[in-house]
């Protein structure tokens, strides 16, 4: 269950970058798969970065989320909101400036958040051929 306390947002870009580095290092330590970081600053007000990663099992996904939340609390003294731990198919961790989505691979493929949040950075699909009579 998510915490009802407000999520802290940093005012300094250096603190946001440090939080992103902590998130990426923690996921690397926990052997997350296919980690990507999407910059959202100037594109959305929900966060400055979105990180998407996969775990090989529900147990790994839940473990990565819990460890990351503990590291953020230890480093910054602030709680993170976590959703989805009971099933751990898709866990959302809201650390304020960085939102982390942790998936099992099949669930990640189904929702395809990378494409949804690409903001035009993704390749344009080829146009359908025009058939003239």
Fold topology:
Layout: H1 13-29, E1 33-39, E2 49-54, H2 58-76, E3 81-83, E4 90-94, E5 98-103, H3 105-111, H4 113-116
Parallel strand pairs: 2-5
Antiparallel strand pairs: 1-2, 3-4, 4-5
Low-confidence stretches: 122-130
Strand fraction: 15-25%
Secondary structure: helix percent: 25-40%
C-alpha termini separation: 60 Å
Structural class: alpha+beta
Number of strands: 5
Kindly report the average pLDDT value: 85
Order of helices and strands: HEEHEEEHH
Largest sheet: 5 strands, mixed
Based on the model shown, name its key terms:
globular; alpha+beta; 5 strands; single chain; translation regulation; 133 residues; Iojap/RsfS/C7orf30
How would you describe what is shown here?
- This protein is of the alpha+beta class and 133 residues long.
- The protein is 35% helix and 20% strand.
- It contains four helices and five strands; from the N terminus they run αββαβββαα.
- It has helices at 13-29, 58-76, 105-111, 113-116, and strands spanning 33-39, 49-54, 81-83, 90-94, 98-103.
- A five-stranded mixed sheet has the order 1-2-5-4-3.
- Strand 4 and strand 5 (98-103) form a beta hairpin.
- Helix 1 packs antiparallel against helix 2.
- The termini are far apart.
- The model is unreliable at 122-130 (pLDDT under 50).
- Keywords: Cytoplasm, Repressor, Translation regulation.
- InterPro entries: Iojap/RsfS/C7orf30 (IPR004394), NT_sf (IPR043519).
